[in-house]
Every structure is written in structure tokens, then in C-alpha cells.
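Researcher: I'm preparing a figure for a lab meeting and need a structural model of a single chain. I don't have an experimental structure, so a prediction will have to do for now. The sequence is pasted below. Please return the structure as C-alpha cells so I can convert it later.
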Amino acid sequence: VQLVESGGGLVQTGGSLRLSCATSGFTFSGFGMSWVRQAPGKGLEWVSTLNSHDGTTAYADSVKGRFTISRDNAKNTMYLQMTSLKPEDTARYYCATGIMGDYWGQGTQVTVSS
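Model: Understood. Here is the structure written out cell by cell.
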């Protein structure tokens, strides 16, 4: 099982980024997938989940209305479109199977400058 995040970087407040999570080694279409982040010096924070069966989504209140989770089962890839970024969104972003489940990627760093 492999999950590889990409798309992070340095962006100004109000900017946008799209993160990708490319997966392999398991039946991607059968798994709900999540994004989780960890800000410097803080614990893990669940960001969003996309259900595999009915496509329902859930978001943390801190990102609701600004972030959009999606997936392309044909490409075994999940995405997180982030808009209206704030300095408090600065964190390392991880994708994971399930809701903070068994398999995680190595993360991609997002830094939002004020």
C-alpha cells in the first residue's frame, strides 16, 4: 500500500492550492479516504473525509466552505482543493485511508504567509 501526497507549497493569505494523493496497492474505489493535517507543534487535526460508497463528504468546521475533497477512482487519486487560505492552515497535510485509518502518506507541507 502506498499513498503519496503532492501539491503543497508556499502561498499567500487568500490564495489557493490543490493537493493530490496518489495511491496504489489497494482497491482505492472501495475505501473512504481522508485528509488530516498537523500544524507545527500541534497534534493531528482531521480535515475532511470522502465516503467511497455514496460520495458523501464531511469537513472540519475550520475548513468548511473553503476546502473541497474529491476523488478520481480511475486514477486512484484523491484531491483537496483549498481556497481562501489562511495562516492557520499552515500544516503538513496527510492523506489516509478511512477516517485516519491504517494507511497514511508521508505528507506535503502547506505554508500560508500573512
